[in-house]
Amino acid sequence: MRVLGVDPAAAGPTGYGIIEGDGRQCRMLHYGALCPPEKRRRESAGGTLRAVHELLGRLIVEYEPDAMAVESVFAALNLNTALRLAEVRGVVLLCAEQHGIPVHSYSPRQVKASVAGYGQATKEQIQLMVRAILALQETPQPADAADALAVALCHLQAEHTRRRFVFPAEAPSTHAARAAGGATHNRALPISTRR
Prior knowledge:
The protein is built from 7 helices and 5 strands. By secondary structure, the protein is an alpha/beta fold. The protein has one domain (2-179): Nucleotidyltransferase, domain 5 (2-Layer Sandwich), CATH 3.30.420.10. Helix 2 (45-63) runs parallel beside helix 3 (79-98), helix 4 packs across helix 6 and helix 5 crosses helix 6 (143-165).
């Protein structure tokens, strides 16, 4: 499975990372961060949103991810920051929808717990764990790119667990199905009930 992870940002760089794997083994294909010039950020929010949309569109066309994993909006932000972050997140979701890519959201705490084993891990700890898990030669920079890789890893692990325990016989890689010319779609998962 191939996953495009995105760490949307209101003012700083929007991180992105693409990984491929099966939940047990994975490798990094590409990562980075879109850093619009300070002048452009101040003058045109629309220009920044367009740059994010264009970048993600190029990444989707080039790498053909099976899913997009996005860090959800952090609730304790001030109103202006939350609104700007929601705008960027909206563009990310729109781009995924335009390309038919399913989107999965994870809270910062979920991502940290999945990658570092601790929901309050620092950015530095996340960077080190991403480097170790993906066997990278260097620590991913900037931290926004490492966060995006962490979001992708979180989804890969969640998807591996879901496939292993819910539909093991019915879970072929959608990337493989797409390459073979087959249809791809998401199955609705049954909600477990207590008895």
